[in-house]
Structure formats: structure tokens, C-alpha cells
Amino acid sequence: AGAPATACYQEAIAAYRSVFDLAQAVQSESERDLLYWISANEATLALRGDWPADKCAAIAEWLDANTPTLDALRVATEYDCAAWPCETVPSNRLMWAVPVLQNAKLRTLSKLVGVCACQCARAGNWSAAYAWSLRIQWMAAHVRLSPWPFFRANADAIAEFGCRQLRMLLAGDGRPDGL
């Protein structure tokens, strides 16, 4: 039942464009420094709406570069569950079909989703901001379905980050009345 969601997560991981990927293609040292600044502050950007004005264009460019990633994550979080299949290897130990490092990358992608939510809030699109923020909780719920302790610990970290991100949105200035 969860295989389509898992395929979407794998697609998102493959499509993810880190700021390091973007920085390698940039010729200007100041642009490269700006992208590295985004990387160093990714979690903070997802938890604060008061971005420095001189950084907003670069953040938007990074989010645009990750449109395929965000699209895949949007689709993945529309499923009720995800499957994290195992297979038996010759030593009779179970091995994840989705490598542990890919699962850990979902934590990075949760920050991307948080930054997207903040960008929506900054633009005044609160319903989209809340929808993106809640997707972080769906990601955590999907990761938590794995029977492996490492996955569940990662799910807890994603969920905690999602709670902090949503709390920031709920406390933010400029919210429409009634929220």
C-alpha cells in the first residue's frame, strides 16, 4: 500500500538540488558565498520568517531549483503510508531496500519543505504555508512506519522539527484572522 509514497520519496531524493550543487555551477564568488550561507542556515530559514532582504532572491532561486523535489514530496505526503521494504542478504541479516543514508536525507528534505512553507507565509499565502508545514508531519509519520530503530529516531527528529516550524508559523505576524 505504501509503495507509491516510497517511490515518490526516492524520486525526491534523486531530484534534490543542494545549495552545494548550485554553488558548483556559479562563477561568482559572492553568489557562491550566498549559497553556502543558505546551506549553513537552512534550518534557521525554515524556523524564521524574517529573512535578510539581500538573501531572499537566492533562497527563491534555490527553491525554484528544487521544484521537482517539492512536487515529489507533495505527492508522497498525499499517501496514508509508505513502505520501507527489507530483503534478506546472504548472511541472513535483513537489509533495507531503501538505504539508511537515503532515509537520513529525508531529514534534510524536511528543512527544504520548511523553507518552502516560510516562503509561502512571507508571500501571504497562509493556506499553502500551513499545508507545506503539515507535510513535514506526514513525512515523519511515513518514516516512523519502518520497523528499524534508526528510522524511528529519524522520524522523531523530523516530527520535532515540524512542530517547531508550525509553531513559528502560528506565532508569526501577518496571519489572517482566525488562524
What's the quick description here?
The chain is 69% helix and 3% strand.
Helix content: 55-70%
Number of helices: 9
Could you name the ranges where pLDDT drops below 50 across 5 or more consecutive residues?
A: none
> Mind summarizing the main beta sheet?
2 strands, antiparallel
Can you write the helix and strand succession as a string? Answer: HHHHHHEEHHH
Beta-strand percentage range: under 5%
Q: What would you note in describing this structure?
A:
It is a single chain. This protein is mainly α and 179 residues long. The chain has helices at residues 3-15, 19-25, 29-40, 42-47, 56-65, 67-76, 100-122, 126-144, 149-171; strands at 86-88, 94-96. It has a two-stranded antiparallel ribbon. The radius of gyration is 17 Å and the shape is globular. 31% of the residues are buried.
Detail the topology: elements first, then pairings.
Elements (H helix, E strand, L loop, with lengths): L2 H13 L3 H7 L3 H12 L1 H6 L8 H10 L1 H10 L9 E3 L5 E3 L3 H23 L3 H19 L4 H23 L8
Antiparallel strand pairs: 1-2
List keywords for this structure.
179 residues; mainly alpha; two-stranded antiparallel ribbon; 9 helices; 2 strands
